[in-house]
Design brief:
The chain has a 7-stranded mixed sheet, with helices on both faces. β1, α1 and β2 form a beta-alpha-beta unit. It is α/β, with parallel strands linked by helices. It contains 10 helices and 7 strands. Helix content is about 35%, strand content about 15%. The protein has a single domain, classed as Alpha-Beta Complex (Spore Coat Polysaccharide Biosynthesis Protein SpsA, Chain A).
Length: about 290
Amino acid sequence: MKTKFVTAIYSDLYGTKFGGRIGRRDHYRWSLLSLLKMTDADFVCYTSENEYESLIEFFHNQNNIDKEKLKLKIFNLEENDVKDIILKWKDFESTKTSDRCIEIQYMKFFWSINELDGYDNVFWIDSGLSHCGLIPNKHLSMKTSNNNRHYFESDLFNNKFLKNLINFSDNKFVIISKENSRNYWSGTVNHKHFKKPDSSRHVIGGLFGGNKNLWSKIVFLFTKYIYQVSEEDKRLYHEEDLMTLMYRNHEELFNPLEFDTWWHEDERISGLDMSEHIKVNKSFYKILEELN
């Protein structure tokens, strides 16, 4: 059974018409290097022409990652699959200081469906998912270094995790769902689009996928909701808002991995008793532990 992870690294978009997180260059690279410990899967990473050569140098030359294990592909974000609706409703000026790129958010689905050939399972995974903000010290390398790699190197991403992730899918589409009532994280699309409005859980866009035969249906629904919701509400929504809508309107298609809070025991949040908080709220990293 062959599995592929699809991801992307575009770390130089802040201040441009695309928008994106600032200062994430090393974060994305060290994190993806940690994810690559799932050696039973192949990876493909989409990137810009500007970053391509430096990623070749980092992964293939400096860290000896096999070119067949991690393929790097150049993609011009201006040529995204739904550029007509993005150009119609995108506020380009406010996007310059946004930490999210709508083109990447939407292309997660279109990139993934283009990578099905020869694989039984395909998953999207954010390149920056492995880091100390989500994973406590007990699951990080924490070896001293001068490149901060220890903040991203985790033992939770491995072939056992991969096998259990595939088994968990059980011929449905795996998503990650965060509690969104007592631990509010995000709003969603206008409730008129839901068959039965329910914002108690919010779907996260960092990891999702499953059997290749599911992708056509999922991408069809995602595309449908991009156009339907954007045209009716006259705005663009994050991919997670649309994924939450998809999940609630078509729950029979999905197997959700559920958690309550991003925080973990090594966090220090002003005004929050972390020891009490994580007693009653399941931290994100517990999902990763359970799949180990």
